[in-house]
Each structure stands twice: as C-alpha cells, then as structure tokens.
Design a protein that fits this description.
mainly alpha, Helix Hairpins, about 0% strand, structural constituent of ribosome, 5 helices, Large ribosomal subunit protein uL29c, transit peptide, ribosomal protein
Amino acid sequence: MLSLSIASPSTITFPPKTHFPIPKSTFNGIKIQKHHCPIHVPPQAASFRNASASSVVMMAKREEELKEIRAKTTEEINEEVVDLKGELLMLRLQKSARNEFKSSEFGRMRKRIARMLTVKREREVEEGINKRLSRKLDRQWKKSIVVRPPPSLKKLQEEEAAAAEAEKSA
C-alpha cells in the first residue's frame, strides 16, 4: 500500500534567495556632443517619400502578377515552372561561361517560380490535399517532366538557323 501525507503550509520552508552582486563596468558609453561634431544630413533623406511611392508601385505589380498567375490552370503553371527552371539553368551556364547577363534575373526568376508554386499549393490546400500527399504528387510530377530546351535557347537556335539560311541564300 502507498500512503501519502500532506504537510501544512507552515511547515514548508524555502531557502532564502541569494542575490549575487552584478559586477559594475567602468564603461559608460560614448558621449557625443553636438557642438563638437556637426551631423550632415544627406540629400537622399529628403527623397524618402519617393521610396515609399515606388514600393507601392512594386506591390501593385506583384499583385497584378499574382492575379495573372491565379488565372492560369495548374497544368499551365507546371509548364511555366519547367520553362523558368530551364531559363534559370541557362543563366547559370552563362554565369559559369563568364558571358554577360543580368544578375537580377536570378532573383526575379526564383521569385516568380516561388509565386507559381505557392499558387499551386494554395489550390492543393483548397482541394484538401495534405502536405504528405502533395510531396508525393510533386515527386511524381518531377519524374514525369520531359527534358526540353528552355524558350530562350529555342529562340537562340531559331535565330541561328535563320542566320545560316540567310547566308546560304546570299
């Protein structure tokens, strides 16, 4: 058998809290006096209102892009994601070959891909597809992708073919 006894509150004692002294530092910070070092305000601070206006324009563009993506079907989104990933690969190849390219394109393409995949996932959530099944479907979709050249490479090949044909006819 198990017996349990409860002590009265008057019999319970706690050890006193010990306060350790906090060592005092001799460093009191840096004091800057106005009359010794004048502060120069750059003229860019005056254009702070313009920065907020440009961010509003950027947000409007982003919202417009999201509306455009949401108007597409899931299959169209998948096709565009494949194309954009191919374009990203072409950019990486240009970078490794030290060709001229816009470095801002990396971020722009990655963000566009992320937005498309986000819209795709939103649709899956609406359909009631859980995370685990979504990943399984994603793996199946990735395995089913047929490797094809990205649109920029197709365009480049067409231009080269047209130039070669122009040389033959000339």
